[in-house]
């Protein structure tokens, strides 16, 4: 398949200002009639995209028309400048296992059109710079599909003969086809309303299966909070009279921001204490906010082409991060965001699939809904926020929305608005959009004691990535502070240093004692810092830094340095880490949620990322040694924390959640210590749990062990939640993530379990996706893990290419491992590539991964 190039962008030859769609819905045979008012905008025939469609009838201005197919495009030669084109097609939603276009899920009919799903419903110029007003009529069997929803306002409904009925919807806002949506089904609704700043009443509805109605309260609360937040922080008001959310069990994405009718993966809607963890609660709130925020950053201002995807996704992730930070502990939220970036984006940026946040080419756009576009995209927006400051950034976003409202814009438009509103020159900063790769910044601090001066030397390198051998230095804001080793206090106020070349020196005067460097505070730039700070300096910062992120970071770096040393020598000195963890546990000024983050070990995968060649077994040995030592040496501390944090009870307030989190971490260390009562303690917590959080934590702790308690808890969990798919996902995932040497056996067995359903993306991610990031299990020296993943990718590709392609990247990391593993990983990729009838989704990921 040929790549699509950003450089080839050309404006559309025909615009479609209006479209009327009529659906005669039936799972086996749905008839769709489209009436497109087309208006000439250039020279050439009308070309309409299709994917698996055949036209039953085509007419132009009421007269049957001549047309041809050019590949998947339907082509009509039109004489004039404006015509009405009517097309009828027939589709089969129940046969649509790709979950793109119109499909059936659990008795519902629903759509997913981003990025290119609309062309599986109707022939259309399926590109985001063609914006149309939609009028939609849905017709369906009344008993089977009593609820009929689409975008915009409900304008009419009524009954028809033969037990059928119809509903008419009109969306007054022009939108690209990827934002079209419909839902038909037997749904219950949680209704509420929101009064906007200008006094308009918005009817809110969350639509779910009847038995899930009691699990919608949290999402509704989050939606209203997000609506108020976007008015307050960005001056953005909602624009329609209704806002609906529908929960669907089979869904490729997390959720979809269709205008006025968001469709959600049910895991990001449903929550109650018995079935959702505190983490799930937070994820629901974040995703609800994210999709809501798209109403402005994505819908009112959309993307000119898919190369601009980060324009809406990076900005909207940044907005949802700000929102979530405002709802609880901003420090803990920042730590979580950076953890995600490092776990998902850094490896991508350093591997064969690396791409800039504004890519130059793609074969299948679905493969570019990546951590780079989303999370690194958000970091790039965050840097502009840091450089411009809150007020100028807000002026820039106001100008951007104002200038581009109702149109399809580019990343350049966004940066230009920021520049124009702030007067800031972002010329070189644009490199962040063009260049892939995680910059490495080397920082060295010299102290001249007699002169009372400190000199900081910074050096940056942007590594080569596929197609980009040579890189330019990129401007970045680095928040920096110096702490006095003796006094334990900050020697100078924090500064934001703009590193805007390959080298830079900063001189600090009036320094009266040896300074310790705190750099990239708050993770102000998405880079890797290399410094030669000693274990003592890092331990010092972990106790004294007044920036919570920097404090966390110092502890992490201390742990990483110790573990990397232990991987190499097998006998690294563990005492500095143990002492630092002990001090953190004992510090009464720290909030429990922060302590929980600070004392957790970096993942085995992250440690692997720090090594020139990953040795998974050596990492596992070092990791187990440090984890066991922390557990055993501090056993009294962990028991104290475990008992003390019980006071948090089952409260869903932030404080209760933080205490549960720390208690869970303590339980993990107690079990890891090897204490004889570890499994029994976890089992007791499992039995007594009043929340899914406590139950899940106990289950995860037991999953580490080989114990009767473990088997009993997993059996009880399965029995208790046998009819709740979202909770069963946790049952699969917890086993797939277990840090045990027999996890590969367990996973192979689970793949044959009757509850392992290949048509459900959540289930695939919870077993196969989770397993592939479990470094010690996936990289089993036998190569069985690779074989398992390769076979899964091939099998899933026949059902759902988009989800199959998302599972490929772990195999693409072959060059990071020893020769034997690398060869087995490559062989698996070759085998997948040789499969007949491979989708272009998987083809792109596999061929690029082979390099
Ligand atoms: N629905 C996906 C998201 O919101 C893609 N737009 O990120
Ligand atoms: Zn999004």
TrEMBL record:
All residue ranges annotated as the Peptidase M1 membrane alanine aminopeptidase domain in the record: 219-429
Enzyme class label: hydrolase
Q: Which cofactor does it need?
A: Zn(2+)
List, alphabetically, the Pfam families matched.
DUF3458, DUF3458_C, Peptidase_M1, Peptidase_M1_N
The family annotation for this protein states:
Belongs to the peptidase M1 family.
Which ranges carry the Peptidase M1 alanyl aminopeptidase Ig-like fold domain?
Answer: 437-531
Is Lipid biosynthesis tagged as a keyword? no
Extract the GO molecular function terms from the UniProt entry: alanyl aminopeptidase activity
Q: Which gene encodes it?
A: pepN
User: What catalytic activity does the UniProt entry give for this protein?
Assistant: Release of an N-terminal amino acid, Xaa-|-Yaa- from a peptide, amide or arylamide. Xaa is preferably Ala, but may be most amino acids including Pro (slow action). When a terminal hydrophobic residue is followed by a prolyl residue, the two may be released as an intact Xaa-Pro dipeptide
Aminopeptidase N-like N-terminal domain ranges (all copies): 41-179
Sorted UniProt keywords: Aminopeptidase, Hydrolase, Metal-binding, Metalloprotease, Protease, Zinc
Q: Which residues form the Peptidase M1 alanyl aminopeptidase C-terminal domain?
A: 536-850
InterPro entries hit by this protein:
Aminopeptidase_N-like_N, Aminopeptidase_N-like_N_sf, PepN_Ig-like_sf, Peptidase_M1, Peptidase_M1_dom, Peptidase_M1_pepN, Peptidase_M1_pepN_C, Peptidase_M1_pepN_C_sf
Protein name, UniProt field: Aminopeptidase N
What domain of life does the native source organism fall in?
Bacteria
- EC number(s): the record gives 3.4.11.2
């Amino acid at each position: 398949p040929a790549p699509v190039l950003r450089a080839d962008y050309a404006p559309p030859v025909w615009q479609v200002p209006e479209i009327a769609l009529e659906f005669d819905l039936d799972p086996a045979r749905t008839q769709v009639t489209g009436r497109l008012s087309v208006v000439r905008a250039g020279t050439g025939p009308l070309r309409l995209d299709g994917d698996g469609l055949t036209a039953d009838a085509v007419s132009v201005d009421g007269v049957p028309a001549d047309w041809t197919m050019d590949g998947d495009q339907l082509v009509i030669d039109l004489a004039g400048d404006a015509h009405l084109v009517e097309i009828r097609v027939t589709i089969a939603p129940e046969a649509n296992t790709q979950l793109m276009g119109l499909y059936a899920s659990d008795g519902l009919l629903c759509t997913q059109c981003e990025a290119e799903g609309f062309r599986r419903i109707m022939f259309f110029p399926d590109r985001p710079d063609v914006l149309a007003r939609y009028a939609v009529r849905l017709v369906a069997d009344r008993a089977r599909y009593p609820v009929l929803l689409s975008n915009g306002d409900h304008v009419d409904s009524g009954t028809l003969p033969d037990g059928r009925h119809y509903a008419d919807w009109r969306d007054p806002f022009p939108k690209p086809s990827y934002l079209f949506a419909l839902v038909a089904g037997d749904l219950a609704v949680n209704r509420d309303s929101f009064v906007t700043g200008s006094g308009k009443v918005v009817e809110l509805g969350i639509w779910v299966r009847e038995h899930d109605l009691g699990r919608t309260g949290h999402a509704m609360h989050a939606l209203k909070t997000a609506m108020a937040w976007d008015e307050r922080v960005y001056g953005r008001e909602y624009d329609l009279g209704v806002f609906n959310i529908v929960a669907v069990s089979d869904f490729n994405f997390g959720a979809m921001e269709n205008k006025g009718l968001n469709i959600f993966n049910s895991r990001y809607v449903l929550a109650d204490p018995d079935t959702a963890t505190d983490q799930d609660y937070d994820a629901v709130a974040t995703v609800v906010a994210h999709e809501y925020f798209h109403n402005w950053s994505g819908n009112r201002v959309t993307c000119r082409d898919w190369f601009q995807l980060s324009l809406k996704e990076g900005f909207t992730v940044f907005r949802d991060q700000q929102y979530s930070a405002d709802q609880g502990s901003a420090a803990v939220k920042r730590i979580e965001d950076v953890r995600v970036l490092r776990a998902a984006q850094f490896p991508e940026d350093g591997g064969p699939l690396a791409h800039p946040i504004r890519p130059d080419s793609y074969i299948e756009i679905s493969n570019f809904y990546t951590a780079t576009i989303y999370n690194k995209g958000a970091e790039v927006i965050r840097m502009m926020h840091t450089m411009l400051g809150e007020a100028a950034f807000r002026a820039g976003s106001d100008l951007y929305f104002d200038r581009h409202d109702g149109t399809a814009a580019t990343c350049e438009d966004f940066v230009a608005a920021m520049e124009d509103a702030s007067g800031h020159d972002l010329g070189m900063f644009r490199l962040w959009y063009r260049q892939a790769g995680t910059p490495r910044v080397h920082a060295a601090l010299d102290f001249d004691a007699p002169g009372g001066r400190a000199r900081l030397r910074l050096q940056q390198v942007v590594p080569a990535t596929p197609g980009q051998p040579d890189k330019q230095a990129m401007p970045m804001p680095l928040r920096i502070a110096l702490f006095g080793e003796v006094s334990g206090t900050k020697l100078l106020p924090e500064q934001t240093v703009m590193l805007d070349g390959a080298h830079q020196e900063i001189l600090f005067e009036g320094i009266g004692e040896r300074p310790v460097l705190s750099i990239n505070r708050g993770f102000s730039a998405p880079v890797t810092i290399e410094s030669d700070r000693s274990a003592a300096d890092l331990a010092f910062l972990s106790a004294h830094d007044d920036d919570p992120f920097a404090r966390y970071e110092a502890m992490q770096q201390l742990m990483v340095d110790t573990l990397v040393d232990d991987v190499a020598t097998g006998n690294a000195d563990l005492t500095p880490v143990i002492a630092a963890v002990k001090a953190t546990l004992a510090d009464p000024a720290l909030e429990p949620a922060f302590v929980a983050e600070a004392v957790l070990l970096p993942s085995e995968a992250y440690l692997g990322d720090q090594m020139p060649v990953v040795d998974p077994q050596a990492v596992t040995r070092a990791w187990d040694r440090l984890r066991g030592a922390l557990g055993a040496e501090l056993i009294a501390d962990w028991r104290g924390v475990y008992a003390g944090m019980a006071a948090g009870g089952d409260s869903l307030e932030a404080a209760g959640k933080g205490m549960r989190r720390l208690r869970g971490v303590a339980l993990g260390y107690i079990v890891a210590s090897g204490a004889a009562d570890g499994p029994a303690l976890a089992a007791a917590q499992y039995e007594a749990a009043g929340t899914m959080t406590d139950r899940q934590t106990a289950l995860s702790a037991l999953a580490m062990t080989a114990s009767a308690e473990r088997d009993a808890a997993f059996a009880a969990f399965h029995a208790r939640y046998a009819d709740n798919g979202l909770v069963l996902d946790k049952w699969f995932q917890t086993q797939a993530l277990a840090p045990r040497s027999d996890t590969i056996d367990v996973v192979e067995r689970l793949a044959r379990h009757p509850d392992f359903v290949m048509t459900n993306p959540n289930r695939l991610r919870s077993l196969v996706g989770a397993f592939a990031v479990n470094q010690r299990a996936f990289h089993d020296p036998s190569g069985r893990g690779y074989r398992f993943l390769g076979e899964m990718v091939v099998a899933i590709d026949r059902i759902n290419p988009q989800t199959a392609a998302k599972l490929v990247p772990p195999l693409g990391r072959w060059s990071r491992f020893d020769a034997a593993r690398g060869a087995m990983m490559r062989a698996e990729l070759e085998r997948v590539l040789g499969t007949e009838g491979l989708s272009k989704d998987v083809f792109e990921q596999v061929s690029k991964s082979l390099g």
